[in-house]
Amino acid sequence: MTIDLELPWAKLVRDDDKVAVAALPLIDHCLDVGEVAEIVLRAYAGPLAAAAGRALTEQNVARLSALAALHDLGKANRGFQARIDWKRDRSPKDRIGHTTPVAALLIQSTLSKHPAAMAIDAIRSGWGAREHFAAVMAHHGTPLKVFSDDGTFGDWTEFTKHWMPSADGDPAAAVLPLIDALRARWPLAWGRGTFCPRRRASLRSSPGWRR
Known about the structure:
Elements: E1 9-14, E2 20-25, H1 26-43, H2 45-52, H3 58-69, H4 78-81, H5 86-90, H6 100-107, H7 115-126, H8 130-137, H9 175-185
Antiparallel strand pairs: 1-2
Helix pairs in contact: 1-3, 1-9
């Protein structure tokens, strides 16, 4: 944790008066999650290889770890960051999330041209990871229609304003240092290589999955 509340945050510590007194920066949190994802990928290498139909390469591990680290990139949006104010954090009206809003960044015509959106789309397309990215965005347990490939999209338009540059800054720009940090940690992920593996068998029926 840090007392620097100026950086985009991912987790907060509040005092007895509900005032934020410390924060875990978004980049640090995402790196932590990516590190744990890599540990899990290596620990379950056998079952994952059985599910994918082949062993994961070092680049596969790097890319999947980086994708996991991107899970909270949506917390950079203006609405989520405003939840540092405890009243807004508790108000259903002002309580902006961090998964569905990512769709606004990627889909809205102006925002989709932002360097951050283009960098994310390059990852999804270049790594063959659209399904993987959709799974990462569903890390709270429910698949999101906005990231489906069947043409059925949920409503993301209300979140556009939380990404648009304005006098108070450019929220999407905060995603770029995150991507830079992930690229520095897992450089192999950004090298040339094969697409990320897809599931070919049930993980739960794979040998060694249940421990």
